[in-house]
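Entry 12.
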Amino acid sequence: MAEKYSYEHFNIAFPQEYVAHVEINRPTQLNAFFEAMWIELGQIFTNLSSDPAVRAIILTGAGEKAFTAGLDVKAASNGLLSDSSSKDSDPARRAVALRREISSFQDCVSTVEKCEKPVIVAMHGFSLGLAIDLSSAADIRICAKDTRFAVKEVDIGLAADVGTLSRLPKIVGNYGWVKDVCLTARLFGAEEALRVGFVSQVFDTKSNAIAGAVELAALMASKSPIAVQGTKELLNWSRDHTVQDGLRYTSIWNSAALQTSDISAALLSGIQKRKPTFEKL
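Predicted 3D structure (tokens):
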């Protein structure tokens, strides 16, 4: 499996059947992202989404210091955030070019959310800026107790533009707290993140958090892939629509999904007290 997933800035492993482990691999730079990395990220999650041998995914960062320190500001200052051409180009045309770059960046991060498989992020150490964008796009967030979070964008002169401001309020359901951390760029710790509902579990160490993520992913991967993928799709749809819209979409979705053989396999395994097996999807 690992041979088909070879990337320069990410390690891909398969610690359990049907479970993929994606590791950001730039530890000497605190796993800070530059353009080639977010392009790879998009490719990875697009490919894993349609891989029939994958049913759940975990995302972590290499090294002991950081899940990711966010955007590589030095690289960005020579690229996305560069003002070198601003004096030589029409402002409207410059804006069009920037919009395209920002949209491309957003699309790459959104592949985590759009991935058909559930994605669990296990964070540790510094988890700043882009770390919040990435983890907000995931389905489940857990962390080690040493994790230090921050929405850092106002500290570098911009509004967060890759997903945090759109997704974080819907995750925690508390606009006052979201504005607190986004307008100040202050650090907050694992216990505060747990208290507001940003993460669902806190572990003593990074290794414990990863082990917990693998265990959770393996449990999800043992379920019907039709049911798991449908549940993720319907939850994400319902989050962004009215209750009535959600109910209607669910009825349409399940009019096809309920015809799966997974239902009879699951029911029979319960009656026969055995572990069910499901075909690849």
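Annotation: The mean pLDDT is 94. The first helix runs from residue 35 to 49.
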